[in-house]
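Preliminary data (for renewal application), phosphoric acid mono(formamide)ester complex.
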Amino acid sequence: MSISLKNRSLISINDYTPEEICHILDIGEDFEANRHQDLLHGRVIASLFFEPSTRTRLSFETAIQLLGGNVIGFSSTSGTSVQKGESLKDTIIMVSSYADLIVMRNPIDGSARFASEVSSVPIINAGDGSNQHPTQCLLDLYSIRKTQGTLKDLEITMVGDLKYGRTVHSLVQAMCHFNAKFNFVSPAELRMPATVIQHIKNAGLKYEEFTELEDVIPHSDIIYMTRVQRERFPDPLEYEKVKNSYVLRNEMLANSRPNCRVLHPLPRVNEIHTDVDTNPKAYYFQQAQNGLFVRQALIAAILGLK
Ligand code: CP
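Predicted structure:
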């Protein structure tokens, strides 16, 4: 059966089946082998970032340019009519009359789903509050498959801010398709939300919660570090209490599995010491680069060009 994602928004990773997810990863491999493919001639893609970004915005915009398309949009609401009080609904209705596809990051949970309901063109969610970051999830899956040779039967350790970190929410949901075993390492205040845990239970899979990182390193295939999301804390004092909870250092990887890889969605603050960067198990910069190929694949698939 052929797979088509033409005109399909991507709001949550759950919007796509495991077969559709793997289809995007396969197309991503094609772009990794040949990133210059002039598929978007004359197409306009809107890149609307209501919240800061380095990797997601720049990799999307690079992807569009490498595909021969044109980008419109903004990297902050400064200088837009959002500053005059224009609603998200009106902004999306207008932009969807200019562009063939909209990539949007917004600080409000659920904003991407809302945008997809008022837009006349597909929406790609580039992160909505602490809810979902499905394109990060795709590049995480791509990186896991590339380094482990499979997505199946892996032990994934997620570390840090599991409450506000949208990337781990998306990744748990996706890895539930592939019989993962999950280890969650966090301070009590930043545990994985019950809704995400329920997803694991519904899939009949196993998870364990830890407070000490050292306990889980020796049996992890993937160690997925995350930043404590300062901008999502209602009380800055609460952030101060937990901001330095976990710092991965090179010596801590001494007893890790040979296939173990350290991932991080980036940006990091101090949760991975720079002495890890030269360890062959550090994969976070290649992981971010993989985002380019996966985003090329996603754009091409949604526009019906792959
Ligand atoms: N991983 C990620 O979303 O990074 P940016 O915030 O820089 O886009």
